[in-house]
Each structure stands twice: as C-alpha cells, then as structure tokens.
Amino acid sequence: MSSNGIRDRVAIVGMGCTPFGERWDKGVDDLLIDATKDTIASAGVTVDDIDAFWLGTMASGVSGVTLSKPLKIDYKPVSRLENFCATGSEAFRNACYAVASGAYDLAMAIGVEKLKDSGFSGLTGVRPIGDGTDAALSSPAAFSFLVPAYCHKYGVDPDELKQVMSRIAWKNHCNGAVNPRAQYRKEVSIETITKSPLIAGQLGVFDCSGVSDGSAAAIVCRVEDAYRYTDHPLFVKALSFVAGPGGGAMDPDYDYTTFPEVVRSAEDAYRQAGISDPRSTLAMAEVHDCFTATELVLMEDLGFSERGLGWKDVLAGTFDRNGELPVNPDGGLKSFGHPIGASGLRMLFECWLQLRGEAPPERQIDSLARGRTLGLTHNLGGAPGECVSFVSIVGPEPSS
Amino acid sequence: MERVRLADAGGRVATFTVDRLAYSLSPPVVGAVVDFDGGGRFRCEMTDVDPDTMRVGSRVQMVFRRLNTAQGVHNYFWKARPVETGGSVEGIGGDRS
Fold it and tell me: What interface predicted TM-score (ipTM) does this complex get?
C-alpha cells in the first residue's frame, strides 16, 4: 500500500469564508457566490480563470450544476461530492490532486451547507431507508458513547470529565467570541455550560456544535505558479483521507475511547509532512469538535496528548489560544458553527489567516512567535465505530 | 459465515447513553452497546430500565419488543434489559415497549 503524498507540490493562493450562522437572508446560491467572491478577490483572479471546480455539500444540492448555475461557469468541469462531515476537506483534497496531476492549472474547492431552512435542529437525513431494526440514535447520542467508555477505561470521575468537556466548550466559545465570522460570538461561563440541559448522555446543549449555514472556498495551483497570484501562498504538506471498515458497532475489541480512522489518517499525514512530534511542532490545529467529548478524544488520536491523559492537558490549558498548541483558535465547530460541506474549508481558512499573519491582533495565536509555522486541519465524518477521517498539514514556507 | 443464536446469550454494557432527541415508544431512549458473553456486539435500545442505574459492565439480556408503530404496522425487534434487577429496576417499564 502506498500513500505518497504531494508535499510542496500544491499551494493555496486564495481563500474566502462567509459568516456562519442562521443565514435566513441568504440561499445556497448566495452563500456560494459570497464565498467565491472573497476567494477570487484574495487570489486576484476571476471565475473564468479557474479551470475546474470541486463542490462539497452533504444535502444542500446535487450535481455540479448546484455551483455552475449561480457562478455562471462557462462549460467547465464541476464535481459535486459528499463524504459525511468531512465533505469540505474532500473537495479540497480532490482539487489539490487535480492541479498536482497537471490536468488543470487552477482549481477551486468550495463547500456549502444550508441546514437551518429545514426547521429541524440537526442534520437532515440523506441515507437510504433501512429495514427498521436499527436503534435510531441521534448524532449526539452516538458520540456520547465516548464519555462513559473514557471514564471507565481511564478511571476518570464522570463529574471531573464533565468539567473537562465544559472547559473545551468554554475555550472554543472564548475563541469564537472574538471572531466576526463565527455563529456564536459570546463567551459562556463554565458553570452555564456545565448546567446546560442534557441532550444525550452527559452531552449538554453547550457540548454540541452549532447547526449552521455557510460557505468557504480555496483556490489551488502548482507551487511553481503560486507567486503569480499571491506573495504569501500556503503550501500543502500533507493530505490524508481514510474510511474505516466500520466494525466498531459489532466488534468488542473497539472500546469507544478512540477513532482508529483518525489515528491512521494522522500517522499518514505526519509521515507525508515529515513530522515526528506534532505537539511540539505544530503552530495550531483545527479539529473536528462536533461534540466536546470528540475534541478530547482527538487530542489523543492526533498524538497531541498521551492516551488517557488528554483530559489533564485540557484542564492545564495546553490547547488554549495562548497555550502550547492552540486548538480551534477560530472557535471550532462548537462556536464558529458546522455547515457540513463548508467546515473542512473553514478550518483551512483559519490556517490561511493565522499562518500568514492576517488574523487580527485580538485573536492571533502566539505559537508563531515561538518559531512554529505549520497548521493541521482534522475533519471527521460518521460516528464512533464507523467513520471517515481527513488530516491536512499546511505551512507558509516550502520545505527546505 | 456461520449463524450464531444470541437471543439467550447474556451480555454486558460496553457503553451507554440517554438520547433525549431520538423518538421512542418509551422515552427517553436509553441506548447501549452490548457485548455478548462469548463474543459479538450489538447496539440497541434498553427497556425496563431506570436510566440512572446504567453502568459500564452492567449485565443485560435480550428481549423481543416493539420498536415502533407506523400506519398501524408494528415493528418488533431486539432490545436489552437489565438482568440484575436489584430493586431499582422493578416496577419500571409499565407499557412493555
């Protein structure tokens, strides 16, 4: 098996991201147009300059026409794809390979989702009808399985773990509060978070990410062309995507304290980028905090914390914006919101701002001043036991 | 592939949740991942259970129960219920769903 990577062969030369939230004033078309306008302006190109398009959306449109119509694309290839909540990252990954192969010179990846219009507070289903025998658990419930399993395995008191989860939500709300594009721009006290009504298991309202509308996009080209478009491109160091065999719901060896898919995609990405110790190397990480318990487990799966000790690092502030390794400095899914198809590209957008020094002073990460340069994005789809995982690593300098 | 009858195999709770969003005939939905004695795992709804008594490692047994009813059609399938009743479980689950 090979996963060779395309380190330093592709660069991001423009990015854009709409505000996320309850966008009653905007349709899917509007969101796509807004994100595209910001992105092409950032790269200094027009839509006509772009050779091929990848559109990620889970349930807000089908086929390339969802994009070609609002953008009035002039008879060019537009792929529409879906890969659970990692849909936006999947669009990005495919656009990168398209330019790396030489098939196209300039490609755009764009993600969009409009979740609020359904009137349903959660994800609208797109799966085929089953035989009616499945335990129909909600998404928060499926992820809440992590909590008793983690407490049991590592001997953590459930009340203590609840504090850990609350601190993750508190951190991400603090970060989102100073981000003008975030859905929830308010700091929330740990006490309010801890006491919020329970949704599933020990997950309360404030442990869940924002159901949101929004769009984000990136324009990519081969590295040799990058400086034609911008003085400050972002180089793609690693792209890894895995779909797991999905045996967790049937296999007693799976213990609900980890996402093996994340472990495997992270190992692959670190190998591609030549990273041996992510915690002391990365300047920042944007991770898939669909629920606070997910973020805790991800700290261990991504190799930032030792097994069973992630909760201590959370309490120590290791992942705060001014901590050793800032995680979700833009507010994450928790506070920035989670319009499925857009989220993976939103994560990259934060790397684009922070690593190139464009994030405003009030929310800049200070790890850059400590000589760190690389950003990681992690995007998860599915549920514990059967999921897909994406990890990318990007940086502002070509590797020496 | 060999078929193995698990209806009478006891099991233990690997992890669990109380789902306050999902629909059930007997709300709130108590969901569990059940590991059978001798191997095999099944994710299902619990029944005849007080949510506060759920623990990792609790013993459960399978029971054939009504999952849902739509347009007059009843759909029966397997749920799990606690084995060690120990007082707190008895007298719960009056509608037998």
Answer: 0.93
